[in-house]
Amino acid sequence: MLRKLIDNCTAIDRVMAGEELTYDDGIELMNYDNLYLLGAAADYVRKKTIGNSVSFVSSYYMNYTNVCAASCQMCAFYRKEGDNDAYTLSSEQINQRIDAAKKLGATEVHIVGGFHPKLPIEYYEDMLTTIKKNHPELNIKAFTAAEIFYLSKLTKNSVKEILSRFKTAGLDTMPGGGAELFHPDIRDKIVRGKCSGDEWIDTIQQAHNLGIKSNITMLYGHIEKPNHIIDHLIKIREIQKKTGGFITFIPLKFSLDNTELEKNGLITQETSSIYDLRIIAVSRLMLASILDNISVYWVAYGKKLAQVALSHGGNDLVGTAFSEEIYRAAGKATNSSLIELAEMVKEIRRVPVQRDTFFNQIQNFT
Predict the structure, then answer these.
(1) Rounded to whole angstroms, how far apart are CA atoms 175 and 200?
(2) What are phi and psi of 364, to 5 degrees?
(3) How do residues 76-103 score in pLDDT, each as one tens digit?
(4) Which among 15, 44, 171, 350 is most buried, taking Cβ atoms within 10 Å?
(5) Is 313 helix (H, G, I), strand (E, B) or coil?
(6) What one-character-per-residue DSSP string does 74-104 give?
(7) DSSP-assigned letter for residue 21
(8) Which long-range contacts (CB under 8 A, 24 or more apart) does 336-340 make?
(9) Is 0.85 topped by the overall pTM?
(10) Positive or negative CA dihedral for 201, 203, 205, 208?
(11) Pick from 334, 156, 170, 4: which is nearest to 318 by CA?
(12) pLDDT tier for residue 152 given thresholds of 50, 70 and 90
């Protein structure tokens, strides 16, 4: 039925036939004016791939420092040493937060921070070792590829050495942050003092080759063009073909409050809901048959728009995001319970499922 409704969109016809989409197909989808059919095609591929379940994980977010040597124009979180609200967590504070995570029912702890110019590598190793010793059942999802690359340069150790030491200390998986957009034409305008797209890719491939799986993100909704989006998605697809190391893809909507891009007048408003839904749908279609999970980050969208995004190709809500601070710094409300996420899913007549980090089912909510 759906294929009969497709009107003059070669890319949708090709993906419905099970073909891999090209760069030109992706550009066609980004410019396609029938969002209803775009979303319906993405939802069809989602259902064929995943079924009707919507998953989420009980996750605790811990940002160990907001001190950062980088000064990215799209970030509201970073601070410089000496700022009144700059912080770095002590071992005691980290232990207290992880204890709180367990009491909240978290099955994973999501750890990211700024590029601190003075923390030794032992700080990170001690953090991992202590958490794993005290809470061996927790999945430690820690340190973006951008953080690993920075630590490699700071400590004069190879990326492989840093990753190997962290894996020995207890690192299980890695978050997907720091990817932003890989294309240098746009990356150089939204980040400052961070690894290049190619350096991020090389770092994450080394992690995957060591058996450390990761998420993958894309920051959109700022000053990018359609070609930057499609370039990013195709590069993700090629990495996944090589390593199989990505667990889920998470498009991250740019939140402009308190960022340099807002202060300099480069962006005056956030993207429309229509554009957000287009990004989810195009992501599903471009990554079809290569990366099964497309996560809708409800913290950035709000719960109502997140529900709509789940009908445009999304199959996952990421998680509870207990103690999330990065989007909070940009003015977004965070935190939700498993029950609240389950109710969101039930309202759209899908099946809510609590998962672990690797998308294994823990429980469903009937």
Answers:
(1) 12
(2) -110, 165
(3) 545 566 667 677 888 899 999 999 888 8
(4) 171
(5) coil
(6) T-SS-B-TT-TT--B--HHHHHHHHHHHHHT
(7) P
(8) 336/298, 336/303, 338/56, 338/58, 338/105, 338/365, 339/365
(9) yes
(10) negative
(11) 334
(12) very high
Domains of the chain, first to last: 2-355 (3.20.20.70)
| DSSP symbol at 293 | -
- Local structure of residue 192 (DSSP, 8 states): S
* pLDDT at position 3: 54
Report whether pLDDT(224) > 90: yes
Q: 15, 55, 22, 58: which is closest to 37 by C-alpha?
A: 15
Model confidence over 226-254: pLDDT tens digits? 999 999 999 999 999 999 999 999 999 98
The answer to whether 182 and 232 have CB atoms below 8 angstroms apart is: yes
- 176 neighbors 216 (Cβ within 8 angstroms): yes
Q: Which residues are CB-neighbours of 21 under 8 A, at least 6 positions away? A: 11, 14, 15, 29, 285, 286, 288
Instruction: Name residue, tokens 């408003």.
Output: 269
17 Cβ contact partners less than 8 Å away, ≥ 6 residues apart: none
